[in-house]
Amino acid sequence: MADWDIKKLRILRTLHELGTVTATAEALHMTPSAVSQQLTGLAKALGVPLLEAHGRRVRLTDAAHLVLRHADAVFAQLERADAELLGYLRGEAGRVRVGAFSTAIPALVVPAVQELRRSLPGLSVVVREAEADAAYELLAEGSVDLALSLAAHAPTPRDPRFSRISLLADPLDVALPAGHPLAAEPGLRLADLSGESWIFGSSGPWSHITTTACESAGFVPEQAHAAADWSAILAMVAAGMGVALVPRMAMAGGIGAALGRGERDGARVVLRVLHADQPRRHVVAAARRGSEGAPGLARVLAALRQAAETVQSS
After folding, report:
1. Other C-beta atoms within 10 Å of 257: how many?
2. Distance in angstroms (rounded) separating the CA atoms of residues 109 and 286
């Protein structure tokens, strides 16, 4: 295979454009003898004559014109590569892989991806649903670049492998059947619901979050039903089977459409904000330590923060 030297091809193309070795040398800040040496070396590497004498000047051979046709295509592709690499260095191109827990995907990741597709179409975001343990395993092994989880289930800030970035202090609202005596109670507090039947997961993060929030309000919640799916929880609340804490991020992510659908005996769901003792769950992102400043990753984090601000203000 011939040795296609890019630097020497540029000299040949400049000679073709300017017509003389002297003009080529001036344009490229070389000596005329250096230009001639480079082109002689290129002809030897390609195995074809590139120049022929024409009076006191030289002209390109047919082989040189053939070489230049292919060189033009090579230079165009290199220009495209330069532009794409510059976009990558600016965080405008490339690929970022995100592992996130289920409610974070519709509430934070999808809005962030939609904004990035609009503003930075060259930047690709690949999403993978994964709860905390799996997400951090994927992050550690390099299968994802960013992991979203609840702070309570993330590695500690002292873990040398990861950098943690706070995204959202997600408020927890209480879901009540519309006909509940406290559904319209002004200044409702979580402690006011100490005698209620509660619906939450039998284990895992949501069980811990609910029990911790209630215990901070001064009571241990009586679990009447266990469920982990938000649509199932809201359907049971709508049916008057109990009350539940619901993260605002989950509502922003689309389960709010379930409100008013799981009707039974005229009951519907009412969400109440607990202004006096509002419990919250903290959502964090994590990246492999040192990678969080990579331009593409920084762009994704900025879009996630923007989506988090929207949830926070809703």
Report:
1. 10
2. 14
DSSP labels for 52-108? Answer: EEETTEEEE-HHHHHHHHHHHHHHHHHHHHHHHHHHHHTTSSEEEEEEE-TTHIIII
pTM over 0.85: no
Rounded distance between C-alpha atoms, residue 269 and residue 158, angstroms: 42
In degrees and rounded to multiples of 5, residue 303 shows phi and psi of -70, -35
Structure token pair of residue 261: 């659908």
Token digits of residue 296: 């593409």
CA 168, CA 264: separation in Å to the nearest integer? 35
Long-range contacts from 46-53, C-beta under 8 angstroms, 24+ separation: 46/2, 46/3, 46/4, 47/2, 50/12
Q: Which two tokens stand for residue 88?
A: 């990558």
pLDDT tens figures, 234-262: 999 999 999 999 988 887 765 554 444 33
CB proximity list for 113: less than 8 A, separation 6 or greater: 125, 127, 303
What is the distance between the alpha carbons of residues 115 and 123, in angstroms, rounded to a whole number? 11
